[in-house]
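Q: Got a minute? One more chain.
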Amino acid sequence: MAGELESDAAAASSPDTADAEVLTFAASADDAGARLDAFLAARVAGASRSRLKQLIEDGEVLVSGRAAKPSHRLRAGDVVELEAPAPLTTTDFAPEDIPLDIVYEDDSIVVVNKPAGLVVHPAAGVPSGTLANALAFHFRQLAACGGPTRPGIVHRLDRDTSGLIVAAKTDEAHESLSAQFRARGVVKYYVALVHGATREERGRVEEPIGRDPRNRTRMAVVRGGRHALSIWRVRQRFTRFTLLDIEIKTGRTHQIRVHLAHLKHPVVGDEVYGAGRDNTIRDARVRAAVQSLGRQFLHAERLGFRHPRTGEFMKFRAPLPPDLSALVGLIGSS
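A: Always. Here it is, folded:
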């Protein structure tokens, strides 16, 4: 599977929440030389050291505007900004009877085909109705080490991105899967419909991603951002659109959407990074279909990883959901 495009991953993109919890601290002379993770652990009440470390590794913590490692040593005057896509402290959390499309399940893991519109775990402004609430209802046993509002959660997808996501039933499985993501041993392929015709049949985007300095609710290609690598290949061409297969080697927030917008081929239906391209679609039927879609055309189609207990490499595939396949059919017939 790894060789189908070109022959890795931190947590996948976070849910779209414009009101994420943001905390800012200034390092004093007494803090000079302190490790970044220890500095935050002493100041953020109710947050575990492991959770803070994960946020730092995910690029959600900036030191004077730049991403840093948990072991980074602070200097007097450094400004530390932490933006958490989910509450750092415990909130009310209850199982909810939300239907799940279960692709695979055993005693260690469960693989789910997440629908568009479903947030992965509670976040500011989204206290319930999430995949985490659904998992807690359907499965009596889930890994607890992810935190009280993230039972079993190992990685994430945007709210409006559909597709495959794996959850851990045991702490041992959670640790194994998390280690595979960190070591870039998890294979993740997406399908995206983008505006315009790419010149080449395949390519790669290796550009750093961080918070957009002009709009902190968005991500952008920025100097000093976190390393990010996306590899793409044309699956199907249309007159004014291209259907792409994309493998992400890193898992930065909104990585695919940011990288494709950087290439001037934004994802169809992406109101955040699309720069208004949806409104320029000439065919009235296609334009209306994209507007009624209500989300970006991005689907996590394939997922591969080693089973936490057996070590067997497992591969899963989720076909395009009906709303996306219908749009492809309409564009193909136009």
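A: The helical segments are 36-41, 49-57, 131-138, 171-182, 255-262, 284-293, 322-333.
Q: Perfect, thanks.
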